[in-house]
Amino acid sequence: MRALISKAMEPPNLSPKFTIRACIEPILEAIPAARQEFVRHYGVHPYFTRRPANVVRAYIERYSQEGDLVLDPFGGTGVTAIEAFLLGRSAIQNDLNPFANFIARNIADTTLPSTAPLRQAFERVEQNCSKAIHEIEKDEIIAKELLKKLPLPENIRLPRNSDADFYYDMFTPRQLAGLALIKQAIDRETGVIRDLLLLAWSASVAKLNKTFLSAKGRAESRGGSSIFSIYRYKLAAQSVELPIWETFLGRFVNVLAAKEEVLRLRDYRERPSGGSLNLDSKTNSRVLAHDAATLDQVIKPGSVDYIFTDPPYGAFISYLDLSILWNHWLGFPIADEAREQETIVGGEREHTEEHYKQSLARSIKTSFRLLKPDRWVSIVFQHWDTRYFATILETAYDCGGELKAAITQTGDVIWSMHKKKNSASVLAGEMILTFYKPAKIPKTRKLEKTSADGDAAVILSEVFDACLNNEATSFTSEALFNRLVIELWRRRALSCLNLDREEFAKQLERRGWSYNTRTHSWSKAGYPKKAFAEMMLFDRERD
Ligand SMILES: C[S@@+](CC[C@H](N)C(=O)[O-])C[C@H]1O[C@@H](n2cnc3c(N)ncnc32)[C@H](O)[C@@H]1O
């Protein structure tokens, strides 16, 4: 870590105990996402907005040390916690969604001596049910008959915006019977073996249902459920019934590869500096299902060394509603309280924007409370609504957080499909905001709102010009938008950025910039051809 400490930045007047972390040089450039790099995340189980593990790893390595405690309060499938654990940190994964925790816990688990018992269990499951599955695939009447005897979950109502009214309506009789047969065989197994098989089964559920949209122009089995692209249970206009056993086998192979990768890392845990890492999930990996806003009830304040988190982005995804597909059949109950606490806008509970902002603000406050002094926290966020950015930036500021880096990560997009359709008007690049919590936080820190009192249109125009007046000859909408957010935040005038996507495009076109739908970037006639992938968001001299 020493190499990362800039001598010029050596802080004066801090007790030696607190100096080291203040000197960490923040990450000031986007890290290209290598999505498919680690089989422990890629392909095991789909989830919403999974962060690229190589990016998360780079942040963990930069802002924490071996033996540290790393937390992700909105952990999703556990990319942060799993990578932190594998990098020799103690990790806490937290998510309100039991199904997300189920994925995270099982990937991180290092208690198996090897994958041999898992392979043997798979063979037992195959012996138990693959013949019956092939029979029902040939004849739907057999499937319907079998359904009368098989254990099925209760046929509950689906969220109101679904195409189907009830849970069973999402499946054909073959799919329902096939999945029930496999689950029945898996349920005879025990412990982590059973859970890993259920993980493969649950990933198959994502493909073996009527919301599965087969990817055009690719193998029929490629594609996913509409809940990942349209964020609701939309039945496919032309439903594709994939072969049941082969689909399960494909998911199992992925789970097996993930487990082999993790166990290999456990068994080969020498570190370059000597000694070995303690990669024991029983002692160094903890999973919590708590509201991020009240995590201080279960984690000691001032005990965490680094937080990397990716909270929900407003109204796009109702995680608990959309995870019914898995939570319900896996038998994971969702408490009313959890639904109440979910940090989203909308959903079945019709959460308001106010609820979302308050919940987000409380989670950030709690995160700062949990963090030790002289430590760092990174928050990933993307949205057109700058009020949400204001919530994050103001809350972090109130907690004493110093914004040290704001990096636009393009290529990690979650809306790529929509982006293609709407080209210039959709924002899809998320920003990683990194704050430092100083050893001593000034008691009174008042947020000045200066320029916001001026004419918003004039300020916005000035800021557009200021942001465009740099070396960049080509940039994405999201890079510019994020730059505007930070520039206006510095001027304490974030509310001036109250513009829609069309107006944003007009502002650029008025200044002679045009949008290239092929490269999804803006450029200006007469500028040199050399293009910068991103605009520098953070000006080291000024900050
Ligand atoms: C954007 S996702 C995180 C995805 C994650 N970065 C990954 O790589 O898988 C946000 C997560 O926050 C969870 N969540 C929503 N409200 C929450 C709350 N109040 N407390 C804890 N988790 C919450 C959701 O269930 C969801 O998994």
Could you characterize the architecture of this molecule?
By secondary structure, this protein is of the alpha/beta class. The chain folds into three domains: 27-106 and 279-447, 3-Layer(aba) Sandwich (Rossmann fold), CATH 3.40.50.150; 116-246, no CATH class; 450-543. Helices cover 41% and strands 11% of the residues. The protein has 20 helices and twelve strands. The strands form three sheets. Strands 5-2-1-6-7-9-8 form a seven-stranded mixed beta sheet, with helices on both faces. The chain has a three-stranded antiparallel beta sheet with strand order 10-12-11. The protein has a two-stranded antiparallel sheet with strand order 3-4. A hairpin with an 8-residue loop joins strand 3 and strand 4 (223-225). Helix 5 crosses helix 6, helix 5 packs antiparallel against helix 10 (244-267) and helix 8 (191-205) packs across helix 10 (244-267). The longest helix has 24 residues, at 244-267. The protein is globular. The relative contact order is 0.11. The model is unreliable at 1-12, 14-18, 412-426 and 529-534 (pLDDT under 50). Bound molecules: S-adenosylmethionine. Residues 47-51, 74, 76-77, 79, 94-97, 100, 291-293, 310-312, 319, 341-343, 359 line the site of S-adenosylmethionine. S-adenosylmethionine binds at residues 47-51, 74, 76-77, 79, 94-97, 100, 291-293, 310-312, 319, 341-343, 359.
